User: Which sequence fits this backbone?
């Protein structure tokens, strides 16, 4: 059997290399006179964070999208539409006032989608059921 790391693990490896190897090396270097030092450190931190976001997207993105599709299909009483079509239907109905959806149900679906997206983009910002901000999730 050929075992190779998937995209999720590769992105985490790049993020770790940037955070644990490149960033400390930049910090140990004498700062150049032209101000590029802080810029390079900043860009390295950004690159590492982007790799972690992409890794979470690769791991959790498909399930999050599927859950949103299921929620929107149930809310809009639709069966076969894609995520883009469902979003357009919801947007159009909200914009022109033509839908008769329960505002609380719309709110629940939208909040669930935001929480799923936030769990990928910034997991430390996801709130628990009691309204508290959850602790940052460990890298996986």
Assistant:
């Amino acid at each position: 059997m050929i075992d190779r790391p998937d995209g999720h693990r590769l992105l985490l490896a790049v993020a770790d290399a940037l955070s644990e190897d490149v960033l400390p090396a930049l910090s140990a270097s004498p700062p150049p006179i032209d101000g590029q030092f802080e810029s390079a450190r900043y860009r390295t931190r950004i690159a590492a964070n982007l790799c972690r976001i992409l890794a979470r997207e690769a791991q959790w993105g498909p399930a999050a999208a599927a859950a949103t599709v299921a929620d929107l299909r149930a809310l809009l009483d639709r069966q076969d539409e894609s995520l883009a079509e469902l979003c357009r239907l919801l947007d159009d109905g909200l914009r022109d006032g033509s839908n008769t959806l329960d505002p609380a149900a719309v709110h629940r679906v939208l909040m669930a989608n935001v929480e799923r997206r936030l769990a990928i983009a910034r997991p430390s910002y996801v709130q628990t059921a009691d309204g508290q901000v959850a602790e940052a999730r460990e890298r996986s």
Remarks:
- The helical segments are 7-28, 36-76, 83-96, 103-121.
- Residues 7-125 form one domain.
- The chain has four helices and no strands.
- Residues 36-76 form the longest helix (41 residues).
